[in-house]
Amino acid sequence: MHKKNRIGKSLLIGSILAASSAPILAGGKIAIDDTRWISIGAGIRTSIASVSDAAPDGSSSASNFNLENMRLYVSGQATKDFKFYFGTDKIWGEYGVLDAIIQYEPGKKFNVWMGRMLTPADRIEMNGPFYGLTWGQYTVPLYPSDNDIGNGANGDAGTYGRDEGVTAWGTLGKFQYAFGIFDGYSGDTNQSDAPLYAVRLAYNFLDQEANPGYYTSSTYFGKGGDILTLAISAQSQDDGYGTVAQSGSFMGYAIDGLFEKPLAGGAAVTVEAEFKSFDVSTDAATPVFGMFDGDAYFASFAYLLGDTGGTGMYQPYVRYTSNEPTAGASSSLTEVGVNYVVSGHNLKLNLNLTNGDANASGIKADDTTTAVTFGMQFQI
User: Fold this and answer.
1) Is residue 213 classed exposed, middle or buried when 0-12, 13-18 and 19+ CB atoms within 10 A define those classes?
2) Which domain range does residue 270 map to?
3) Sign of the CA dihedral with 143 first, then 41, 178, and 239 last
4) Cα 330 from Cα 271, distance rounded (Å)
């Protein structure tokens, strides 16, 4: 999970300058000539959590130190209409390619990206971890491109919301769209080599959300104007999951909404909600699938306190998640926390408490756990 380039200086600039006499512009942007340029940035998310009954003895609390994300962002432009973006992150314990996109962007109405990228999906997927409202936004079942159905082997359905494919996207007035075709799960189950289809359609009823591409955010800390956006996303793939003997298809959709209202003194109120429904179909009586099948939803409420005289601003929030699978027990999770916002999504601290038995797979955990987490996020 994910995403956008924030221009910044990096040690990589030195190596680039060694091979080029191009001048450096403000913010880590390197101009090659009047048309061509390269920019560099980085992002880090790290946390420490105390989780009840999670130690090896089964009764003591476990202290977990996590480097959740370590990303390098490189983007550039070859001509006015052709750009590229390349990003890395820690993936399954190793550092590797997260994004690699060639971007044809002639205007607002129609653009095409090709390569490895986020598949069009619900807001929490399009946020990536750096642009969510809450620290733990991935507590509802995720689309196939974030589930690694192949378990690290050939035929993966995707990693961190990414997949190889092509996406057409654009903005028509206050309407935003993104349509994509991707590899999806391409293991032995997919004998027909059926692709994964993905779409996201959104309408901005008030002010237009300002994000690059078809990406999103779950809060603008009151700086984005009056926001009321509703969106629907859907993904499907035939013969995408299961085993060779029990192949099946996936169909899922999500409806998400965001409301944010700036108030006096720099304060703001934010409400986010989503309903998601997944269906994994097969003719077998007992399907063997790693995907969630059923319904899920969450709702979040936050209040930015505004200018209290300090370096940053406090944004307390509460979030409730419910997962209701077709077969098996339901699960839920409550998160209560506060963001300390120093520089928007580029520098913020978070302290939160969670209680429940839900996780990102949608499967009920063995026990209800309570966790206290402190996290730090930095981008440049």
Assistant:
1) buried
2) 51-70+96-379
3) negative
4) 24
Among residues of the chain, what percentage have pLDDT more than 90? 59
Backbone angles phi, psi at 199, to 5 degrees: -145, 145
* 100 token code pair: 């690699």
What CATH number corresponds to the domain at position 220?
2.40.160
Q: Is residue 142 part of a domain?
A: yes
Residue 14 within any structural domain of the chain: no
Length of the chain: 380
Distance CA 202, CA 211 (A): 13
Report the distance separating Cα 255 and Cα 127, nearest Å. Answer: 15
What are the CA-CA distances from residue 154 to residues 145, 324, 327 (Å)? 14, 30, 28
pLDDT band at 260 (very low <50, low <70, confident <90, very high): very high
Its pTM stands at 0.87
Any idea which residue has 């955990």 for tokens?
A: 365
Measuring CA to CA, which residue among 50, 263, 252, 222 is closest to residue 147? 252
Q: Is residue 143 part of a domain?
A: yes
What are the pLDDT digits (tens) for 193-234?
Answer: 788 999 999 999 999 999 999 999 999 999 999 999 999 999
Q: Which residue reads 């944010």 in tokens?
A: 260
Closest CA to 185 of 225, 216, 154: 154
**d(Cα 64, Cα 375) in Å, to the nearest integer?**
12
DSSP element (H, E) containing 344? none
Provide the number of structural domains found in the chain.
Answer: 1
56: CB partners within 8 A, 6+ apart: none
Per the domain annotation, does 63 fall within a domain?
Answer: yes
The encoded tokens of residue 111 equal: 């653009």
**How far apart are alpha carbons 233 and 122 in whole angstroms?**
6
pLDDT (tens digit, 9 = 90+) per residue, 295-339? 999 999 999 998 887 889 999 999 999 999 988 889 999 999 999
Please answer whether residues 154 and 210 qualify as being in contact, where contact means their C-beta atoms are separated by less than 8 angstroms.
Answer: no
Q: Is the pLDDT of residue 363 over 80?
A: no
